[in-house]
Amino acid sequence: MSISYQPLDLETERLVASLVLQDLEEIQEAQKGKSRADAPITDDQMALRDQLAAIMSHMTILEDIHIAQNLDNALHLDRDCLEALSIVNQAEADDRNAALALGRGEALPSPSAAQSSLQDPSVSAQLSVLFRDTQNLTDPIIRNFRGHSPEASIVILSSPELHGADSIVNLAP
After folding, report:
1. Has this prediction a pTM greater than 0.70?
2. Taking phi first (over 0 means left), then psi (-120 to 50 degrees means alpha), and beta for anything else, what does residue 156 get?
């Protein structure tokens, strides 16, 4: 016969800990007023106090784990958004440099990696997913405008390096 231990998921463990805490508090309430005020603490009372301290400490650890997991999830989302914005920003700068070169009468440079990646349908789809719910942003950095098609989306990015000029990136899949 073998014994295996399967840890509980965090939400279940938090629920169990809160129920244990509730039980311990009920026991503590039931014991109040049953002994004299000057009587020494019994072994049962000492054990109950230690169990209360241990479960509260455990609940604090569980809450810390919950916060850390939420923070980790947010950082992953931020990382994806920042990577996408970095590609768009680099493509924007490359577009500007190409336009300046054309304005000086120079030959059009070949597309950069960032510009080429924006032509890739999988990258466009990823950008579309990242910016799908930004239509109500009032932030001057990103403003999303829906076209006639619900799948089409245009993001206008303002860049301080361009002194107020905007870059329009069509994110239609």
Report:
1. no
2. beta
